[in-house]
Amino acid sequence: MNHLPNSIEARDAAVHMHPYTDARALQQNGPTVMAKGEGVHVWDTNGKQYIEAMAGLWSVGIGFSEPRLVEAAAKQMAELPYYHTFAMRSHTPAIELAEKLIGMAPKLENPMSKVFFTNSGSEANDTVVKMIWYRANAMGQPQRKKIISRIKGYHGITIASGSMTGLPANHGSFDLPLPGFLHTGSPHHWREAADGESEEDFSKRRAQELEEMILAEGPDTIAAFIGEPVMGAGGVIVPPKGYWAEIQKVLKKYDILLIADEVINGLGRTGNMWGSETCEMQPDIMVSSKQLSSSYLPISAIMLNDKVFEPIADESNRIGTFGHGFTGGGHPVAAAVALENLKIIEERDLLGNVREVGPYMQEKLGALTAHPLVGEKRGIGLIAALELVTDKQAKTALEKPGALGARVGAAVFEAGLICRNMGDALAFCPPMIITKPQIDELVGKVEGALDQVAGELG
Ligand code: PLP
């Protein structure tokens, strides 16, 4: 054990099983225990300061110390600390948040008209699957239940959302995906295009592969396609030119619903309020969480259009209920905090900041592609990744996948910067309040870590 007996780290390792963690490594090394946050910074219990360049888990959009969210929570706690929205009940925070989200939704051919609240991105996506199955039955199409997602897509970890996720760590040992969940190719041009294949041609090929999958399965068995406008946890993959236009052509041809997973993209991250706007998508369902409350409290929201809602409403009337919902769904305190958070995003024009500071971060990180260990910089707005390589030509890293990412990630952490190594990619998704001098500091720390590891590798 690398931590002192009875230390906070030892106490954690003794009793606390962590998500997304090597449990044995945690027992051996203990966690880093965080104690406080302010703006774009957090401090651990030893007093060390870090720039939180992942905004927690892509989520603390407005920064770590907003008193207005504390006040909003306290006020709601005092007034009505809990109520639910089952069986013809409601409360003002849920109503106001739903109105606000419908007002903020993109201007679409089939506009979003209803909001259903859940507590996490995974719960929201699981709920979406059940809504789609319920709708198919309502429409007399019980065979139309399959859902297509993408390799490298991330939609959560519950049984259904984990089935839609397209990453090996979420499948193998968990016996996922369930039958009926299909995965088509990722939009990662740099990694997956053929030699000399343009972005446009690659996009067309991906759409053609999607159509082939639909035809092979039977178009009348496919209910929906889910995608993050810009992929997040799969490595921050910005779709290549023409990608969503080509994909949507195929979906339209076979009347397949489009679900935009906006859990990371939403509320400003890509330089528009929604990734669907950035990527010119026409979703039927949009899923939002994380920056919805800046993760001060757990909450997620599913927005749907009438095409989705109406058959569900009819079926619920026929049966007597839409038999689905969570005790904490649309929790009044979380909803009040989310509402205040959205007001702050608008009042402080954080979208304006993303548009101003985002290109600066992209340019500064982009300059690091001159470094021998950086193969590609990807990103848009205030979300980015560097793909690390040891051989730029072959686009390969160290023999063990993820080892180079882990080494550079550790050096970055040591330097007081938190980013996320996902395989051999390093991701950046700082709070949307970050300034240019803070970005200079962030990029300086990354460069220092890259130099250090390059030096060690010789
Ligand atoms: N969808 C996307 C795009 C995500 O990035 C995540 C989490 O990172 C989820 C869904 C799952 O959200 P949660 O961790 O709140 O269940």
TrEMBL record:
Among InterPro entries, the record links this protein to: Aminotrans_3, Aminotrans_3_PPA_site, PyrdxlP-dep_Trfase, PyrdxlP-dep_Trfase_major, PyrdxlP-dep_Trfase_small
Which Pfam families does the record match to this protein?
Aminotran_3
Q: Which PROSITE patterns match?
A: AA_TRANSFER_CLASS_3
One example of the protein's molecular function in GO is: pyridoxal phosphate binding
What does the record list as GO biological process? biotin biosynthetic process; gamma-aminobutyric acid metabolic process
Task: Specify the domain of life of the species encoding this protein.
Answer: Bacteria
CDD domains, sorted: OAT_like (cd00610)
The coenzyme or cofactor needed here is: pyridoxal 5'-phosphate
Does the record carry Transmembrane as a key word? no
Matching Gene3D superfamilies: Aspartate Aminotransferase, domain 1, Type I PLP-dependent aspartate aminotransferase-like (Major domain)
- Entry keyword set: Aminotransferase, Pyridoxal phosphate, Transferase
Family, according to the entry, reads as follows: Belongs to the class-III pyridoxal-phosphate-dependent aminotransferase family.
Q: What is this protein called?
A: Aspartate aminotransferase family protein
Q: Which organism is it from?
A: Pseudooceanicola nanhaiensis
UniProt lineage? Bacteria, Pseudomonadati, Pseudomonadota, Alphaproteobacteria, Rhodobacterales
